[in-house]
Amino acid sequence: MWRFLARTIVQRLLLLVVISIVSHTVIHLAPGEPTEVDAMNPMMKAEDVARIRKSFHLDEPIHLQYLHWMKDLGTGELKSFRDGLPVLPKIWERFLNSLPLFLCTTLIVWTASFPVGIQAALKRGSRYDRSTTFFAYTLISIPGFFLSYLLILWVVRTFHLPVIGLRTFGTDSGSGIMRVMDRIWHLVIPSLMAALTGIAVLSRYVRAQMLEVLAQDYVRTARAKGLDEDHVVYGHALRNALLPFVTMFGLLLPGLISGSVIFEQIFAWPGLGLLGYEAILARDFPVILTLNFMAAALTLFGILLSDLLYALVDPRIRLQ
Amino acid sequence: MADESRELLSIRDLHVDFATDSGSVSAVRGIDLGIAAGETVALVGESGSGKSVTAMSIMRLSEGRVAAGSIHFQGRDLLNVPAAELRQIRGGQIGMIFQEPMTSLNPVFTIGRQLEEVLTLHQRLNARAARAQALELLQRVGIPAPERRIAQYPHELSGGMKQRVMLAMAIACRPRLLIADEPTTALDVTIQAQIMALLRSLQQEFGMAVLLITHDLGVVAHFAERVLVMYAGKIVEQGSVRDVFKRASHPYTQALLAALPDPLKPSARLSAIPGRVPSPSMLPPGCAFCARCAHAFAPCAERQPPLFAIGPGHGAACFLKEQ
Amino acid sequence: MSIQGGQNPASEALAPPFAEAEALGSAETPTQQLWRTFRKDRLAMLGLYVLLALLVVALVGHVLTSFWPIFDPVTVRLPDKLRPPLSPASSSLAKDLLPPFHSYPFGTDEFGRNVLARMLQGSFISLSVGIVAVSISLAIGLSVGGLAGFYGQRRLGPISIDTLLMRFTDVVLCFPTFFLILTVVALLPPSIYNIMIVIGMTSWMSTARFVRAEFLALREQDFVTAAKALGLPEWRIIFRHMIPNALAPVLVSATINVAHAILTESALSFLGFGVRPPYATWGNILADGRSYIFDAPWLFLIPGAAILIVVLAFNLVGEGLRDALNPKLRKRSG
Asked: Containing domain of residue C324, as a range?
């Protein structure tokens, strides 16, 4: 099995290199350059533009630009086009902001989906099942930002509480516990909004899996042995139904970067998504490329993790 | 029929319905079945005759709804016992094995775990005793090297071995009755013979009654004492194996037996029964076999024939036998 | 991993004893059977009605706002800005600026434009973005999946076609989709066609996988061998015989992808990268309305509700199709 693992890792690394080349090419092929963003600025003289272009290697052929990017990334010297500051520390700082949001959202999604999905499967056709189904479809269909704004509208109008941003303005001078609670409050609302669609999708999937497993022959065997319903459902059936979800776990990782653009925009949460958005607006290639690259790397790593977890959990795979 | 008070299992006038998109459909339309202690009874029929549904309904494992009738086991009304008592009977006093050994074992638990589960549940053995007992059981059902097998997962075993494990689980608690729902249909012919031999030896050793559901008349001939033939949800003939095979009285039974290829006449034309089994949602008012029967006459299409006695313990549901 | 729905336990139990019996008797084509099963799902039928209504509204709206402008989405009427729904037009308006029936059923926006007119125009555009994007993704997905499934074993040098195409699919799957769309759309000149193409080019992967899986299964079936034995050319086998059979999961994912495309377009507009004015899509009406959420909530609520209803309808129809096709798929492979 270790040889298989090593081979997979090498394949994935190759894939990563290919992806980085492709993203680099795509982004550089698109029209629009960082120097053009500020084109209207009368203070930018021709020499300034030329100087900027030179320092960012924009005049060189594309493959050399790629190498420059990779080298700078590796040495940690990659600088942003926008303000000349190093890219990696920026990303790190924003990452620390995105991380709690991501963790909180994931926690909410995964703890809420399973009970809902399992109950819906057990009580198939009942009012509970039908209403949760309808809610799930509605949540999947509603644009995330629409629902978020509705909630903001309601919370602000009814409770007169602030919702936007990492913390309420002015709380830095408050007591420790108040700061902590304020931070938690500001974390919960965006996480909840971001989690709703996830819950809708995942709980449907959980339900479908449970239904499929409950119809299997071995569940019938378990009943014929005289086991009580709880043992049959939570002991025998659930263990099988959970298998694919273990693999999904690994695939969550890329959501750290890509999932949050909209919600960070709405709630003014200074995370990676917002960083990407600002970078795109400013044609800040190094940041865009690095974020893209990292997202792809996370995806590949996530897939690897999934495969590994699956092999650990399913005896049919493990013993190959 | 056997004396009701001595019967181990007594099914009376069982009706089982299924809810389908096109309304309620009757899979079992009033059957009587009795098994005495230690007896081997075969329930024979084609796919769609309702035999599996009958077997599953005994322990309330069927997805259909029992619309009428009763099922008594050792004097207890199985259809109405509280859930806790039913669970105690399942696996403890009635064991069941199913048709598809490939999918009847949980793929993520070891054989040992699944086998010990039955022992721990019904006999309250501790882990060590359960493990020892499980090994013995595996040995008894003919699995070589049980210490190795007990830690393996179902996908590492062949179909025949899986069925042996299923048997081990079913008889682990020395049930009074074993229900075998087409236990050999999904297996190779040579394995079939082995499993049936195993079944026989287990039955003799434990003195269990066996209800064997099958469509294979050869298996019935070798194994059962009594046989009931089912067609479209009803019993059309029943009696001892000897009586039914030698003096088949219902046209359906006769046609079934005639359809068996005769090894002494290899080039003779195979005789098939014309027509098809009627869909349970479109059953005629009279005898269900009427449309395919060579001997049908006036009353067949109008009324359903009850079982008429042909000899002691031998009956056929055919107006031809009305005396 | 599949998100196919579970089976009805009663019909599962029905399958072994009654499969043969049930299989006889009904002489319907598969399409009729599909329609009959689909019709029983009330939610799915509701979704279908909504979609049909949407189609009518979109086409009629397109006519009414472009060719025969009864409703003009572009007319600016400053005296009448930010009127709530169902309010009448003010009498100070010039004659040629008056809206039909002298009222604004959906109110006006910050420029006094008739929101109903903009919604009508938007319906056509949002729907066409969805449909065109998904058509592109279907074309790509069917080609990639079909080729991989059918010719998969042929080799091009050291690797087989199947491996090549599937690795390619994996590469594209690795890109963070929304981020990529955002990047491309932001960097390209703003145009509705760019959006359609980009969405189409990033959503074909699941279709390709389904098609490949179906083709792999179908390839082994007897009717393909029979067709080959009759001497039919391969392209004909693929297009006329295999693709129609493989369409089932593709149809389901196409329906759901249209819903997804409409949501993506609205998200892009929300971020400022969608279709540019003066064209109205529901997404950019929603984005514009964001600034007035406290003062003129209808500007935000109406397009949001419309998107919700339409996307929900697509999802319901897609799920209904999936459930209706599922038992059929089982019978076919059983």
From this structure: 38-71+100-332
